[in-house]
Design a protein that fits this description.
Blueprint lengths: L2 H9 L8 E2 L6 E2 L6 E6 H6 L5 H5 L5 E5 L6 E5 L12 E5 L2 E2 L14 E8 L3 H4 L6 E7 L7 E9 L3 E13 L3 E12 L14 E14 L2 E15 L4 E3 L2 H5 L18 E16 L4 E18 L7 E3 L2 E3 L8 E19 L6 E25 L5 E29 L4 E19 L7 E2 L7 E20 L2 E12 L2 E3 L2 E3 L2 E14 L4 E20 L6 E23 L2 E14 L11 E12 L5 E11 L2 E3 L5 E3 L2 E11 L3 E8 L7 E6 L4 E5 L4 E9 L1
C-alpha cells in the first residue's frame, strides 16, 4: 500500500459509499452489475448542482449533449450513437419506471427531487425496449417521508437568472399514505445575446412534481403527477458567411459577426404527465404495473433568415422596397403518449432470479411547419395574413408492443450467467396535410396519402460475470440494440441495429477507498439514422448510413484518501468509422472528466462543501456529407456551499473558462448556421431545510 494511503487508513476508516441501482429492474449494488453504469447519488446531485440533463451528461465518459435551436431539440450521443431531428432518442429515458414518449420531453423542466441518476452505456434494448440502442438513463425521484420535512431554495445569477424551489414531504396517514411535492420556478433573461444585447434564450419556467405513495401491505400504490409550463427563447442560431469565409469562422468566436435578429424567437411549451405504479408482493414474485399518460404541446415562432433585415432567407430578400420586413418559421407539436408495462419479478436472494414482462406505447404526434413572410409588429409577431412558402402538417401515429424476459443464474457462488431477450413490433404511419386545419391529405413521395411501416426485431443479450472475490468482478457481454425507423416530412428513415461486444471489470482497493471500473467495447452499427438541414423544402432531410464500426473504452476511478475528500476521474474513448472512410459524426475521440469534492469543518456546526468538475472533449466532426471539424474543448464547473444542516449559503459557476463551441453547423446556401453553447454563468444561492 502506498505510504499516503497507509497513513490515511490508520487514522481514517471511511470507505466509498455503496450505491444501490435498479439498472436491471431489481435493487443491486452498482459494483455487482455487469454493465458500464455511471450513477449519481442524491449527495452528488446536490454537491455538483445538477439541475438539467446536460449537467450529468457532461460528467459522464463517452457521452455528449448538444443543445440546438430550442430546448426540445437537444441531442445525446453515447459511444458514437446519436439521433436526428424527428426520430427517437438513442437512449430510453425513464423517470420512475415511465419511459418518455419523445426526444422533445427529455430536456423539459428541471431535475428536482431526484434521488438517483443511472446512466447505462451499451445497448439495453433487451430490458428497456427499442429506443435503448445506445443505453438507458434511469431517473429515480425521492420517495415521500414518514415525517414532515421540507426545503426552500433560491438562487440568483448573471443574465438575470433567478431560480426558486420548494419541497414538502410527509405523511397524510402515518405509515400508510405519504406525499411529496416539488415546485420550481425560473426566470432568466438569457445568456445568448444578439448584437442588440437582447437575450435570445430567455426562460420562464414553472415545474410542479407530486407523488403519493399508499402502503397496503402486500400492495404498494405510487401515484405521480408532473406539470411544466415554459415560455422560452428559441431559434437563436448565428449566421456565418457562405463559402470559405464562413468555414474559417466555424471555431472562431472573436471574429464572427455575432447573432443578429429582426424577429426574437420564442416557444411556448406545456407538458403534463400522470402515472400509477402498483407493486403486489405475492411471495414467489412481485407483480408490477406501470400505467402512464402524457401530453406535450409546443408552439414555436422565429426568424427564417436568422438575420436583421435587409437579409436573404428561405423566402427571398427581406427589408428592401416592396419586400417583406422579415421571413418567419413557425412550428406546432402536440404529442399524446400512453404507455403500459406489466412485469413479474422474482425475489433477489435466490440462486435463480428471473423476470418477465410486456409493454405497450401509443403515440400521436402531429407537427405543423410554416415558413413564410408577413408584416410584423414591434414584438416580432405576425400581423395580417402571412404569405406562406411552406404550410404542411405531418400527423404521425406510433404503436410499440414488446415482450421481454431476463434470467440470472449463479452457476457457482462466483460465476453468474445472464440471458435476456426481447421482441418488439413497432407499427407507425404518417399522413401529410396542407395545413394545421387537417383538410386534404397531400400525396407523399411514394404517391400514397398515408404511409405505413412495420419494424420488428428480436434483441438478445448474454453476459457472464465472475467474482474473483468480493472486491473484483469481471464480465463479458454480447447484446443487440435496435431503434425503430420513423417518418419525417413524408420521408421514411429505416430502423437501425447494433451488435455490441464488451469486456469489463469493477474493482475495489485499499479497504474500498478506491474503485476502478473499466470496459472495452466494439460496435457493429447498421443503417445509422442521420438528419441535416437543406436550403429547399422540406428544409430537413433524413437518411441512413449503411455501415459504421465503433471501438472504444471507458475508465472510471473514484478514490477517498480521507473521509473529507473524494476524487474522481473518467476517461472515454470512441473511434467510429463509416464504411466510406469518414468519421462518425458528433463523436469526440476522447472525453476526460476530473472532479474533486471536499468537506471542510468551519465551526462546530458549519462546514464548507466544495465541488469542482473539469471536462475535456477532443476535436469532433459536425455533419456527415460535409465533415465540419471543431477543435478540442475544456470546461470547468464549480459549486461551493457552507451550511449547518439546516441553512446553506453557496456560489456556483458553470463553464468558468468561457469556452465556446458549435453544437451543430449547417449549410443553408446563403450561409452557415452555427448553434452555440452557453457562455460562462455564475451566481449565489441560499437553501433552508426544515
Amino acid at each position: 500500500m502506498p505510504v499516503g494511503l497507509a497513513c490515511a487508513a490508520e487514522n481514517d476508516t471511511a470507505a466509498l459509499d455503496e450505491i444501490i441501482v435498479t439498472a436491471r429492474h431489481r435493487e443491486e449494488s452498482l459494483h455487482n452489475v455487469p454493465d458500464s453504469v455511471t450513477a449519481f447519488s442524491a449527495a452528488t446531485i446536490a454537491a455538483a448542482d445538477i439541475q438539467k440533463v446536460a449537467d450529468f451528461v457532461e460528467m459522464t465518459p463517452n457521452i455528449t449533449f448538444r443543445q440546438t435551436f430550442r430546448e426540445g431539440a437537444a441531442y445525446i450521443t453515447i459511444r458514437g450513437i446519436t439521433t436526428g431531428q424527428g426520430g427517437w432518442a438513442p437512449v430510453t429515458y425513464v423517470v420512475d419506471g415511465v419511459p418518455v414518449g419523445s426526444l422533445d420531453s427529455i430536456n423539459v423542466g428541471a431535475l428536482q427531487g431526484v434521488e438517483r441518476i443511472e446512466v447505462l452505456k451499451g445497448p439495453q434494448s433487451a430490458l428497456y425496449g427499442a429506443g435503448a440502442i445506445a443505453g438507458a438513463i434511469n431517473i429515480v425521484t425521492e420517495a415521500p417521508t414518514n415525517t414532515f420535512e421540507g426545503q426552500a431554495h433560491v438562487s440568483y445569477g448573471n443574465y438575470g437568472d433567478t431560480r426558486t424551489s420548494l419541497t414538502l414531504s410527509g405523511p397524510i396517514i402515518n405509515d400508510r399514505v405519504l406525499f411529496r411535492l416539488d415546485a420550481y420556478h425560473r426566470n432568466a433573461d438569457g445568456s445568448q445575446r444578439d448584437t442588440d444585447a437582447r437575450g435570445l434564450n430567455f426562460d420562464r419556467t414553472t415545474d410542479l412534481r407530486g407523488k403519493i405513495i399508499v402502503n397496503l401491505d402486500p400492495v404498494t400504490i405510487d401515484v405521480r403527477g408532473h406539470y411544466v409550463k415554459t415560455t422560452e427563447g428559441a431559434v437563436y442560431q448565428e449566421v456565418l458567411p457562405p463559402g470559405a469565409a464562413g468555414l474559417a469562422l466555424i471555431d472562431n468566436y472573436d471574429s464572427s459577426p455575432g447573432i443578429q435578429r429582426g424577429i426574437r424567437g420564442y416557444e411556448n411549451v406545456t407538458e403534463s404527465e400522470s402515472s400509477v405504479k402498483i407493486d403486489w408482493n405475492a411471495g414467489f414474485a412481485t407483480l408490477t404495473s406501470i400505467s402512464a399518460y402524457s401530453r406535450l404541446s409546443q408552439s414555436l415562432f422565429g426568424s427564417a433568415t436568422w438575420q436583421k433585415p435587409p437579409a436573404t432567407g428561405f423566402c427571398g430578400p427581406t427589408g428592401g422596397p416592396g419586400e417583406p420586413p422579415d421571413c418567419f418559421q413557425a412550428s406546432v407539436d402536440d404529442f399524446k403518449v400512453y404507455s403500459q408495462d406489466f412485469r413479474l419479478t422474482s425475489p433477489s436472494k435466490q440462486r435463480l432470479r428471473w423476470l418477465v414482462g410486456a409493454s405497450y406505447l401509443y403515440r400521436e404526434a402531429p407537427n405543423n411547419l410554416t415558413v413564410g413572410s408577413a408584416a410584423l409588429d414591434d414584438a416580432g409577431a405576425v400581423t395580417g395574413s402571412p404569405n406562406s412558402v411552406v404550410d404542411q402538417t405531418d400527423y404521425r401515429h406510433d404503436r410499440f408492443a414488446g415482450v421481454y424476459g431476463q434470467v440470472n443464474y449463479d452457476i457457482t457462488p462466483s460465476l453468474e450467467a445472464t440471458g435476456a431477450l426481447r421482441w418488439d413490433e413497432n407499427r407507425y404511419d404518417s399522413t401529410q396535410y396542407a395545413s394545421l386545419a387537417l383538410n386534404t391529405p397531400l400525396p407523399t413521395p411514394d404517391g400514397l396519402t398515408t404511409q405505413h411501416a412495420v419494424d420488428a426485431s428480436v434483441q438478445p443479450k448474454f453476459q457472464l460475470a465472475y467474482h474473483w472475490d468480493e472486491d473484483l468482478m469481471a464480465y463479458a457481454s454480447v447484446a443487440k440494440g435496435f431503434r425503430s425507423g420513423f417518418f419525417y416530412t413524408g420521408n421514411l428513415t429505416k430502423p437501425e441495429h447494433t451488435w455490441n461486444y464488451e469486456l469489463g471489470a469493477k474493482t475495489y482497493f485499499y479497504d474500498r477507498r478506491l474503485s476502478v471500473n473499466a470496459a472495452v467495447f466494439h460496435i457493429d452499427y447498421s443503417d445509422q439514422q442521420f438528419s441535416a438541414i437543406v436550403s429547399t423544402p422540406p428544409y430537413r432531410i433524413t437518411s441512413n448510413i449503411p455501415k459504421t464500426r465503433i471501438n472504444g473504452f471507458e475508465l472510471e476511478i473514484t478514490g477517498r484518501p480521507v473521509s473529507s475528500l473524494t476524487l474522481g476521474a473518467g476517461i472515454g474513448n470512441t473511434v467510429g468509422k463509416v464504411d466510406d472512410g469518414t468519421a462518425d459524426p458528433y463523436t469526440p475521440k476522447y472525453t476526460v472528466n476530473l472532479w474533486g469534492e471536499h468537506v471542510l469543518p468551519v465551526t462546530a456546526l458549519w462546514s464548507l462543501t466544495s465541488r469542482i468538475d473539469y471536462r475535456h472533449q477532443s476535436s469532433q466532426y459536425l455533419g456527415k456529407a460535409d465533415q465540419f471539424e471543431i477543435g478540442s474543448k475544456n470546461y470547468v464547473n464549480l459549486h461551493l456551499a457552507v451550511g449547518d444542516g439546516s441553512w446553506s449559503i453557496g456560489v456556483y459557476g458553470s463553464n468558468l473558462t468561457n469556452e465556446r463551441q458549435a453544437n451543430q453547423f449547417d449549410n443553408v446556401g446563403f450561409g452557415y448556421l452555427r448553434y452555440n453553447n452557453d457562455p460562462r454563468t455564475y451566481g449565489g444561492e441560499v437553501t433552508f431545510k426544515f
